[in-house]
Design brief:
20% strand; 550 residues; disordered N terminus; alpha+beta; 2 domains; Dipeptide-binding Protein, domain 1; Dipeptide-binding Protein, domain 3
Length: 550
């Protein structure tokens, strides 16, 4: 039997080698054929969840929305903030009032000019309780826009939001307190404008097809249906910056299987793909291979409010210490990702002095580490407190190859280290997994979060009591107080004290094991050598194609 297996494997290897050679030949042919072409063929791992800028919650949706929509600001290649639809900006001496002039040459794809009212309407939608935007906190907790808290809570009408159209092209924004990073959050899709008249004409179908969205950005959505596995965008010739947009369009393909994606790339059908860790060893020496920091933190979210066992601190700590993160990134993910032991990842948030908020991933080894002996100690304490020694949990997991593999290893590690614990995996499309988390219909969830703006609050704000992204429904008065001091209180305008206080808040998250950090994601990619100037960012918009050439 072993000889037969070896023979079969040898035959398969030979066939694979011939296929690879054939694919490489086709790839070279494709490059020759498309060298002067200008449509970029892009792989994404999951379907777009929403094309509504005030409803979208995931990085893939944000990327596509930003392909065809501009806000007041945009990101430069180096991550700094630049004007987009904003022609000029003035800020009052007290830092509470911003006045923006909208570009005269900015138009929607139906010919309407982009107006200040488009921003008023879009921002009002973001805080409207009827819309129930998951990102409404960007207006309130992060943006500190006047009356946003009260409107979200249903205490004031949306018309009371601190945004006004002074005239067709002048937008005034009032804040509760000065926000030093306010401009840098304005490139985030939640702050994008929406054409009021168009929205009212399409009603509930807004954002569900190419005909129910408008563009004011570099590209126009030409073909899209909900949960589409492929869709297209074309260059917007009426875009105010069209002269600097070199691509004629974008073709997106959803491919969840990384091997299928690599084959499509080798066949010349895709220009950029993400790879799984198993593939990196095969292609890491290829000049077209790139390992790109993505900024995402993968972690396990335990439902503490509804699952008594997971409400037990010692049990949560036992789960955390039972996981060998280094093994996961080296042997499963294998794409350059880093093991993480902190709730705020490294290399995206820096102090005024240029110091990374997270200088080392093992900043609190006494609170979060991989240690089977400590895991066993916490487990024994938890069993005594709970009065039982057998536990079964279900963990929801995205249906991508990598996350299923990661979840399988986590399951194995926990069950081996903590006898009596069983982890059952429920594999779901990402959209369903997100919905289950939002509904509180889970026990454990393998999930991720990417930074929306370059400040530690983009993570730490999630665990404030009643934040919509506080999926485990954790609450801690001391934590809430520390965050409040940094957002609206005594340290909001004192950078050094604010930084120190945020660090203290981060420590509480670890002390209470609010989440179980796993790893900071890097994307292993193949990028066609003819493609230049894709802008990769760890914050907000992970990929931008406005300056890309092919």
């Amino acid at each position: 039997m072993k000889k037969m297996v070896k023979s079969v494997l040898a035959s398969l290897a030979a066939v694979s080698l011939l296929a690879l050679v054939s694919c490489n030949d086709k790839k070279q042919e494709a490059k020759t054929e498309t060298a002067t072409g200008s449509k970029l063929n892009v792989m994404i791992e999951v379907e777009v969840q929403s094309l509504d800028p005030q409803q979208a919650t995931d990085g893939t949706s944000f990327e596509v929305i930003a392909d065809f929509t501009d806000g007041l600001k945009q990101m430069n290649a180096d991550g700094s903030t630049a004007d987009a639809l904003c022609a000029s900006e003035t800020v009052s001496e007290d830092g509470l009032t911003y006045t923006f002039k909208i570009r005269d040459d900015a138009f929607w794809s139906n010919g309407d000019p982009v107006t200040a009212d488009d921003f008023v309407f879009g921002w009002q939608r973001a805080v409207d309780p009827k819309i129930a935007s998951e990102y409404s906190y960007m207006m309130s907790e992060i943006g500190q826009i006047k009356n946003s808290f009260e409107i979200i809570e249903g205490k004031l009408p949306i018309e009371e939001l601190g945004v006004k159209a002074l005239d067709e092209k002048t937008l005034q924004v009032e804040l509760i307190v000065p926000v030093s990073y306010f401009d840098s959050i304005l490139y985030f899709p939640t702050f994008y404008p929406v054409n009021r008249k168009f929205y009212e004409s399409v009603g509930d179908t807004f954002g569900t097809s190419a005909s129910t969205v408008l563009s004011n950005g570099a590209f126009i959505l030409t073909d899209y249906q909900p949960a589409a596995l492929s869709f297209t965008l074309a260059k917007n010739e009426k875009y105010y910056d069209a002269a600097n947009v070199k691509l004629s369009g974008l073709n997106y393909q959803v491919l969840k299987d990384s091997q299928q994606a690599l084959m499509a790339y080798q066949n010349g059908n895709l220009d950029i793909v993400k790879l799984s860790g198993d593939q990196v060893d095969q292609i890491k020496d290829d000049p077209e291979f790139k390992a790109i920091g993505a900024g995402y933190l993968w972690y396990i979210s335990p439902m503490m409010d509804k699952v008594p066992e997971l409400a037990n601190l010692n049990f949560r700590k036992a789960l955390s210490y039972a996981i060998d993160r280094e093994s996961i990134v080296k042997n499963v993910v294998k794409d350059g990702s880093m093991a993480s032991y902190t709730p705020v990842p490294a290399e995206f948030a820096y102090s005024n002095e240029g110091k990374d908020f997270t200088t080392t991933q093992k900043e609190f080894p006494e609170l979060c580490d991989s240690d089977t002996a400590k895991a066993a100690e916490f487990y024994e304490a938890a069993k005594a407190e709970l009065g039982k020694d057998s536990f079964t949990f279900e963990m929801i997991v995205d249906d991508t190859t990598v996350q299923q593999n990661v979840a399988a290893v986590i399951k194995e590690q926990i069950e081996k280290t903590l006898p009596g614990v069983t982890i059952n995996l429920r594999v779901e499309p990402k959209k369903q997994r997100v919905k289950d988390m939002q509904d509180g219909s889970f026990e454990l969830a393998l999930t991720r979060w990417g930074p929306d703006y370059a400040d530690p609050m983009t993570y730490l704000g999630m665990w404030v009591t009643n934040n919509p992204n506080n999926y485990g429904l954790w609450t801690n008065a001391e934590y809430d107080s520390l965050i409040e001091k940094c957002v609206t209180g005594e340290y909001s305008q004192k950078p050094a004290e604010r930084w120190e206080t945020l660090k203290a808040a981060e420590k509480i998250v670890l002390e209470d094991a609010v989440i179980i950090p796993l790893y900071q994601q890097a994307d292993a990619c193949m990028v066609n050598e003819s493609v230049k100037n894709i802008e990769f960012h760890p914050v907000a918009l992970n990929r931008v194609y406005k300056r890309t050439t092919k």
